[in-house]
What we know:
The protein is built from three helices and nine strands; from the N terminus they run E-E-E-E-H-E-E-E-E-H-H-E. It is an alpha/beta fold. It has a single domain, classed as Collagenase (Catalytic Domain), CATH 3.40.390. The strands form three sheets. It has a five-stranded mixed sheet, with helices on one face. A hairpin with a 2-residue loop joins strand 7 (94-101) and strand 8. 36% of the residues are buried.
Amino acid sequence: MARILSVILLSLFLISCSPASTVSGVDVSIFVPPKDGQLNLVRWHSKTIRINLDSAPLREAASHWEIGGIQFEFGKPGMIEYAGLSNIRPEVCGWTEVVYVGKTLRKATIYLNASRVTRDSCGVERTLTHEIGHAIGIMEHTNDGSIMGARLSDTKYIITPALAKVVSQMYSGQPEDNGGDYGPVRIKEVVSH
C-alpha cells in the first residue's frame, strides 16, 4: 500500500487555558482545552450506530445521544463494543478506547470501573452516557455542566443545548464534510474521571 498510516496512542490530560472560539464553524467554548491544543471531534460514517450488547442501561444511556439524526441499534457488532467491567483503572469511573482515521471513527470500546460505578457520583447510567459521548466522537471534556465534563460529580445536565448543537454539527452532512478538519489518523484513549 502506497500510504502508511501512522498510529499514535495518546492519553487525554486536562489543563486550564483559553480555547479558540470555533473549529471549522463549531463553537468550542464549551470544551476544556486539550493539552496539545488540538480539539478533536470525529464521527461515525453513519448516523445509525451499532452497539454490540442490548441492555436497559445501554439503551437509556444511548437515548440521550439521539441528536441530529443519530440512532442506535443494539445487539449488533461492528461499531461500539461494551467490554464490561474492569478494575484496571481504579481512579476513573470508566474509559473509552477509540480508533479513528481522519475524521471517521472505526471502533470504540467502552469499559466501566467495577469498583466505582456503583458508588459516589459515578453510577452505571451516568458513566455509560458519558462514555457513549466519547464513543460517538466527542474526544474532549466540556466545561458547560453537561455529562461530558471531566468529573461526573460536576454534572448538572445530561446534554446542554450547546453540546446538542455541537453533536448536530458533527453529524450534519457526510463524514468527510462535517464542518472541518477534526484530526489526523490516531488511536486515542479517552479517560473519564
